[in-house]
Specification:
By secondary structure, the protein is mostly helical. The chain has helices spanning about 1-20, 25-45, 50-70, 75-90, 100-105, 115-140, 145-175, 180-185, and strands at about 110, 175. Strands 1-2 form a two-stranded antiparallel ribbon.
Amino acid sequence: MKLLLDFLPILIFFAVYKVTGDLITATAVLIPVTILQVGAVYVLTKKVEKMALVTLGFVVVLGGLTVALNDGWFIMWKPTIVNWLFALAFLGSHFIGERPLVERLLGHAIGLQHAQWVALSYAWVIFFVASGILNLIVAYQFSENVWVNFKLFGLLGLTFVFLIAQGVWISRHGTEIESNDQAES
């Protein structure tokens, strides 16, 4: 259910754009849908991930500017800004705290050596930077319609491929950590 909720705003944005052909209208719908989505996640789980709040903030601010100024470039920059902030967070975690962010997120389930966590973290940094650059290339070099398609299918597809590649890499280098529930069974 949460996975569907996570993708609901982008799916509705895409559908509204395809029906209206208008980026401003699609963005005007995206803002309240994203607010409702974050609210629904909170009601269902009693918590909201920081990344969801960051994304919500950028949807409200850049989406609001898009609608208020009737300029689609603000919303078109959102994926780049969010990706680059994630890259900065992953990179910054090498200097703040004892473990890279990716290890903090996955270390409870996967066993890797410190150097492997660092390598995985840098892979995420590169992925986020490249995704942001690719978003700008598509936004500036292709039509708005192509960008909307890329936003849904391209960035999502690239993320899916990266996650599979990461999974393959982890399966070769990592070990699964048993949880207390599994150990007691």
